[in-house]
Amino acid sequence: MIEQLGRRERKKAATRQKIADTALRLFAERGYDAVGIREVAAGADVAVTTLFSHFSSKEALVFEQDEDFEQRLVRAVTDRQAHEALIPALRREIHAMVRHCTADGAAPLWRMIEESPALRQYEESMRQRHARSLAAAIAADLNLPRATPICSAIARFVVDAFSVAREADDPRTAVDEIFRMIEAAWAVAGATPPARESSPASR
Fold first, then answer.
1. DSSP state at residue 47
2. Domain total in the chain
3. pTM for the whole thing?
4. In the chain, which end has fewer C-beta atoms inside a 10 angstrom radius, N or C?
5. Which residues contact 19 (CB under 8 A, 6 or more apart)?
6. Does the keyword Cell wall biogenesis/degradation apply (predicted)?
7. How far is 140 from 107, CA to CA, in rounded Å?
8. Host domain of residue 87
9. 82 contacts 196 by C-beta, under 8 angstroms
10. Number of Cβ within a 10 Å radius of residue 48
């Protein structure tokens, strides 16, 4: 049963990736506005209902790693090594995300996003959602019942660091510079989380 579930999940992931790859190819060839959902579904050889079971909207096709990035930010808080400070853990994750999004071949995608009001609006709503999820994770790490203004502000700074650094001439240096400010703000706020206990596996 577990093996069958594994095959089903792999098949779903492969279908999702095929849809996303087809959409990006068509958008690159003909322009985002010129391609409809039905054309993407036909190109990926899936039904429109199948496409919508994987992606909530046409805009979501462009940001196919949306949920993965959101989970990575949360896991940077929840799954970091014992005694590792929060801000360095987040800086490491932002470095990885920026490297991914500034790799060779990524520039045309970001130009397409910049040229589309609908995609820019979707990206902004995505960043806000990522910041809310990250703020909740930070609050939980501090044993707070809900996110405070400090948690929300730091989370927004971290999420915005990705966007700012991605557009910089030297993304790696930009991440480090931004995180020096974030770390200073975190220190001034006095929001020091309790020490994290080592898991049995890390002892």
1. -
2. 2
3. 0.84
4. N
5. 40, 41, 44, 46, 50, 51, 54, 55, 61
6. no
7. 36
8. 66-192
9. yes
10. 13
30 and 85 housed in the same domain: no
CA 27 vs. chain centroid, Å, equals 21
Question: Residue 11 belongs to a domain with what CATH number?
Answer: 1.10.10.60
Question: Strands, E, within 50-113: which ranges?
Answer: none
DSSP 198: P
145 phi/psi in degrees, rounded to 5: -70, -25
Longest CA pairwise span in the chain (Å): 56
Looking at residue 54, its amino acid is H
State both tokens at 165: 């650094």
Taking CA atoms, 56 is separated from 60, 70, 106, 146, in Å, by 6, 16, 23, 28
